[in-house]
């Protein structure tokens, strides 16, 4: 009951605050303040005449408020010029193109960027905890206010200040620059644009809403970590022609054979068909290329949320560092089930995989042991592997054993709060730390600043 009451209170408070930011001008806020102050100090009308000021201020506020309920006439065409994606934490400038289609010059306009309603559901508010919430006092944890604010900020992802527009002549087009900084990876969902104009008294804004739904991908910030060159080798892949997309060895001609239903027409040897009037197919050498596995641990609690974000940043750097055209990388992680995504040679660029990383979430219920069947199935096709672990348990040791049994070159990155404790924990299962790098939060931040 308490959580439901708090949720409804925060929802109403946010709606009122959002309405006030777009409707009430600074002069209007001052006038409302005069109403309250004059009413407070002029309560006794026999000893002071402040009630006269309050009456006059109330008349102004009521008249201006009623006038603001009627939107002004403004016909326009609006277009955002957004980039394909941005990186979390980086400043960005994009433009909005505005064309005045009204028969009159538009003056004194204010532009507001609108995003999709960021208010979380009651279920999300109760289940998705704020990072480091365990450090707050019991009162803050009970009232859920800081958790609410964190979820609002995460869903919005960026904040936009109102922009005062210059005069818009009839039929003219202007471009307005918008500055923003995305604080979280994921998406920014735009819902539309609002144009405001102060009423005749300048206390409230009259608004015109333009629907313009778009979304902008915010990629995780890549964190550079030195990864040694693994002695990987090119592996044979049945059906490699389709995977390679006619790159490298796939163009090496081997011979001709009769056509079979289902063969691609692009491999038909048309010169032989012209001579014999029978379809003949060209055969090529099967593909050998490098394939690297990137295993990401997503089993993170709220207490290690910062460590999980660092793991995603490292994974982003590993994916972005793919430069050889004849290699493939498989991103693998476990949530409610095991997931595996491939990019590289013949499978598209790394943008799709970075998009997946931008949206991946930590899952307290996930277990990295769920990737064992998938790894065992694909282990013979991998040339090397990189693992990013958030802890060291028996399940992590099992993943490492799979690579060792297959004699597969691998490099293990373990993120931890305390390096010495994590070292002792790993040495209980491993004879040596060769091929294992332990990174602490403080060390990671220090290395990032040096880079």
Overall structural class, as computed from helix and strand content, comes to alpha/beta
Radius of gyration: 31 Å
Low-confidence stretches: 236-251, 446-451
Overall average pLDDT:
83
The helix content is 25-40%
Q: Give the overall silhouette.
A: flat
Q: Tell me which oligomeric state these chains represent.
A: single chain
In whole angstroms, the N-to-C terminal distance is 50 Å
Outline the structure in words.
The strands form four sheets. Strands 9, 12, 13, 14, 15, 16 and 17 form a seven-stranded mixed β-sheet that branches. A five-stranded mixed β-sheet has the order 2-8-7-4-5. A three-stranded antiparallel β-sheet has the order 1-3-6, with no helix packed on it. It is flat. By secondary structure, the chain is of the alpha/beta class. Helix content is 35%, strand content 27%. The chain contains 14 helices and 17 strands. Residues 236-251 and 446-451 have low confidence and may be disordered. The chain has helices at residues 2-23, 26-41, 50-68, 122-127, 138-143, 145-156, 240-244, 270-276, 305-320, 351-359, 372-378, 394-405, 419-427, 441-450; strands at 76-81, 85-87, 91-100, 110-115, 163-164, 173-181, 186-198, 205-219, 235-237, 253-258, 280-284, 287-296, 327-334, 338-344, 384-389, 410-416, 436-440. Helix 2 (26-41) packs antiparallel against helix 3 and helix 9 (305-320) runs antiparallel to helix 10 (351-359).
Short description:
With 451 residues, the protein is of the alpha/beta class. The chain is built from 14 helices and 17 strands.
